[in-house]
């Protein structure tokens, strides 16, 4: 057999031995989070669509998001509403963490799972490989609630909600009000925290 034909034969054989579940996670594509801002409210417009695709109860997903984002809110039809302006990247990050904890099987990586209650324990059962594991309920991260967790010299994602009297952009992060030099209203930016004084921080736009 020519060398090229032998390689293709071996490659084809290797692919045939890969379980379907390995590639299933790669084909799992929930809709991109669609966010808009109505006044001081953040609206996740396709919240229910995402919940449908990942096959999770909307109440469970929404309660998780509120806890992790450290805010209040409610649902309205197929939309989720969050109090205050929440950066879209933060919603994306929390959704990814939810998928890792409550959707993807740790055994085979497939998203073909379901949540069941056994007594007081929440179990993630995989319909692809039969694996199952208890889900550890994580407490809300204090990093975004406690300004002490935000450090000088670090870079954070923020949304510029307003413009201060001196023309600086104003953003909120946890308990901090951040003044960002030269930042325009409505911009989602990475900022470098230069100084923190009480509940006030001063930052500049971070350029990678």
What is the name of the CATH topology of the largest domain?
A: Defensin A-like
Work out the strand percent.
25-35%
Whole-number total of structural domains: 2
Shape: globular
At CATH's second level, what is the architecture of the largest domain? 2-Layer Sandwich
Tell me the name of the CATH class of the largest domain: Alpha Beta
**SSE string, helix = H, strand = E?**
HHEEHHEEHEEEEEEEEE
Number of DSSP helical runs: 5
Largest sheet: 6 strands, mixed
On the 0 to 100 scale, the average pLDDT is 83
Radius of gyration: 22 Å
Structural class by SSE content: alpha+beta
Low-confidence runs of at least 5 consecutive residues: 139-147
Portion in helices = 25-40%
Instruction: Trace the largest sheet across and list its strands.
Output: 8-12-13-11-10-9
Alpha carbon gap, first and last residue? 52 Å
Write up what this structure looks like.
With 208 residues, the chain is α+β, with helices and mostly antiparallel strands. It is built from five helices and 13 strands.
Which key phrases capture this entry?
208 residues; alpha+beta; Defensin A-like; OB fold (Dihydrolipoamide Acetyltransferase, E2P); six-stranded mixed sheet; four-stranded antiparallel sheet; 13 strands; 32% strand
Could you give the topology of this structure?
Layout: H1 3-16, H2 20-24, E1 35-38, E2 41-44, H3 47-54, H4 58-69, E3 73-76, E4 79-83, H5 88-102, E5 113-118, E6 121-126, E7 132-134, E8 155-159, E9 162-163, E10 169-173, E11 176-181, E12 188-197, E13 200-205
Parallel strand pairs: 11-13
Antiparallel strand pairs: 1-2, 2-4, 3-4, 5-6, 6-7, 8-12, 9-10, 10-11, 12-13
Helix pairs in contact: 4-5
């Amino acid at each position: 057999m020519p060398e090229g034909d032998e390689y293709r034969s071996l490659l084809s054989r290797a692919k045939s031995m890969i379980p379907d579940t390995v590639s299933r996670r790669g084909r799992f594509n929930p809709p991109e989070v669609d966010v808009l801002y109505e006044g001081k409210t953040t609206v996740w417009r396709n919240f229910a669509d995402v919940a449908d695709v990942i096959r999770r109860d909307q109440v469970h997903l929404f309660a998780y998001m509120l806890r992790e984002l450290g805010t209040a809110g409610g649902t309205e039809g197929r939309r989720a509403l969050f109090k205050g302006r929440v950066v879209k990247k933060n919603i994306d990050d929390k959704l990814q963490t939810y998928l890792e904890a409550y959707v993807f099987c740790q055994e085979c990586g497939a998203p073909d799972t379901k949540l069941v209650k056994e007594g007081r324990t929440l179990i993630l059962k995989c319909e692809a490989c039969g694996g199952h594991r208890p889900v550890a309920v994580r407490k809300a991260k204090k990093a975004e609630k406690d300004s002490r967790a935000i450090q000088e010299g670090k870079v954070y994602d923020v949304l510029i909600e307003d413009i201060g009297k001196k023309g600086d952009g104003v953003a909120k992060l946890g308990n901090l009000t951040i003044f960002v030099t030269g930042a325009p209203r409505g911009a989602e930016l990475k900022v470098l925290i230069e100084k923190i004084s009480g509940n006030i921080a001063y930052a500049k736009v971070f350029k990678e």
